[in-house]
Amino acid sequence: MKYLRKTLALVLLSSVPYVLFSQVKPLDAVLSEYQYPYEVHYLNLKSQNNDLKMAYMDVQPKKSNGKTIMLLHGKNFNGAYWGKTAKDLSDKGFRVIIPDQIGFGKSSKPQSYQFSFSQLAENTKAILDQLRIEKTIVLGHSMGGMVAARFALLYPEKVQKLILENPIGLEDYKTFASYQTIDQAYQAELKNTAETYKNYQLKFYYDNKWKDEYQPWLDLIAGWTLHKDYPQVAWDAALTSDMIYNQPVCYEFKNIKTPTLLIIGTRDRTAIGKDRAPKELQPKMGQYQILGKKTQQEISGSKLVEIENVGHLPHIEVYPEFFNALYEFIK
């Protein structure tokens, strides 16, 4: 009988949702209770009739090599996940600037805002202007790759080198997936939980292999879903999903003249709107082992480093390989 009770207890425990076992804590819209790896500064930004605060970290090297690098985060992330990258770069002499884009991380979550990659690039430039930084290396991951590409196109004089780490937007999602209204996207965002986020990341990022080092970046976005502020976050998430879908950058890669490195985890299959595409088209979306090579051909003189059997986050999943490729390009 004792054995049966123990077995039943184990079965019941195994059926309890993941969220009860994680360290997920409710987080407000601007992550005020979450400590970033470095001191956070704020730029007061007047934009589209909004008074906004744009958060950023400014990591100073002990011994400067005279170079600055700016790290741009992805859609489901914020500047905090660049902590180790920033430390190692600053140890090499780089000054490291890490913004949270408006609508993300510790930055403001405006509810009336026209999100565009040009606007995000302009906001990002405002940080460099405040810090009187004339030139910088720019590294963008995921959605940050789309911001970085637009930044390089708008302000080529400010960009010394460009690095795109598994950027989304290497294809035009409108040519595959049907349109989703912002209201529909908002309702979908409101349904997110720790479990749905984890399932998404397992499928597209980590090939169904979960490691402890992935947990902090899940807990950050999952914590939002537990707080009363979540509708604010979800609304901006819907607006930025619409931005990604409707504002492709892939047609303009040929116009990028900045020395560029593509770091591509070839197992990645991330593609916006894949669930809305016809079933016969879904397997053709997010084929990074093809898209990386195609993009290298379009960006004149660019270099490609492919990391086999790695998903959407090389700088989390296989950090040494990622950092070696990055440093070899910028040293």
From TrEMBL:
Keywords: Hydrolase, Signal
Pfam family, one: Abhydrolase_1
GO molecular-function terms, A-Z: hydrolase activity
Matching SUPFAM superfamilies: alpha/beta-Hydrolases
Cross-referenced InterPro entries: AB_hydrolase_1, AB_hydrolase_fold, AB_hydrolase_sf, Epox_hydrolase-like
Record keyword Repeat present: no
Gene3D superfamilies: alpha/beta hydrolase (3.40.50.1820)
Protein name from the UniProt record: Alpha/beta hydrolase
Lineage per the UniProt record: Bacteria, Pseudomonadati, Bacteroidota, Flavobacteriia, Flavobacteriales
